[in-house]
Write a structure and sequence with these properties.
alpha/beta; 18% strand
Length: 246
């Protein structure tokens, strides 16, 4: 795959990186990344993946843009209020990088359609805020053998992890908490979404290009109030109903 002079200039800062270079940029251009949820995590991640030159970005989200989203969901602006999130996202991402193909799926991902939505992808980035969807995404990723980048946030803290086979996300969160906290209930500082979304995009780029050490089997925990972070290992659950199956 040969890059045009315009693309060479666009990706110049990647092309001189020893860990990416021409071969890595070609891998990005050939890759398909699915983003589940065009919200606080998925939106900033999508911006950076489009700017990085990921060839195809598939976004699945059934919501419309609301005024309350704009405090943290920087993929949208005031003129997008009332529009389908995936439709608005496609326009903004194409404006950033016309070389990127955006596939907009205006519906929710569920256990019934997850495998079909994930089909043909090289990495999945999940930024949803409900555990039923997270578990459906995880199960489909394990079944399809596609690595999963998971990002979450609330109040002043967030987390990013990568799951590729065993352990899987279900090992970390075996069951959906009965009274799970959401940003709508407990609040979230807007800039935190950018931090976690950018971290998630970085992990996807590393997975695609083979650069560095992705957070595979690990979880990075970030505390925005104290400006500290730590990384923990995720232990595989021998009884996990998703990844322990032969």
């Amino acid at each position: 795959m040969a890059f045009s002079p315009e693309e060479v200039e666009r990706y110049a800062r990647h092309l001189v990186l020893a860990e990416i270079g021409g071969p890595g940029q070609q891998k990005l251009a050939a890759a398909t990344v699915l983003i589940v949820g065009a919200g606080g995590v998925g939106g900033p991640a999508a911006l950076y993946l489009a700017a990085a030159g990921v060839g195809t970005i598939r976004i699945v989200d059934g919501d419309t843009v609301a005024l309350s989203n704009l405090q943290r969901q920087i993929l949208f602006d005031t003129t997008d209020i009332g529009r389908a999130k995936v439709e608005a996202a496609a326009g903004h991402l194409t404006a950033i990088n016309p070389h990127v193909r955006v596939e907009a799926l205006d519906h929710r991902l569920s256990a019934d359609n997850a495998l079909a939505v994930i089909s043909g992808t090289d990495a999945v980035l999940d930024g949803t805020d409900d555990f039923a969807t997270r578990h459906a995404v995880n199960a489909a990723c394990v079944a399809a053998g596609v690595p999963l980048v998971s990002g979450a946030l609330g109040r002043w803290s967030g987390q990013v992890g990568v799951f590729a086979g065993r352990p899987c996300y279900r090992c970390l969160v075996p069951e959906s908490p009965p009274d799970a906290e959401t940003c709508a209930r407990v609040g979230v500082v807007g800039a935190l979404a950018g931090v976690i979304g950018a971290m998630a995009a970085l992990e996807a780029i590393k997975l695609i290009t083979g650069a560095g050490e992705p957070l595979t089997g690990r979880l990075m925990l970030y505390d925005g109030l104290s400006a500290t972070s730590r990384t923990i290992s995720v232990t595989a659950d021998p009884g996990c109903p998703v990844c322990s199956r032969p």
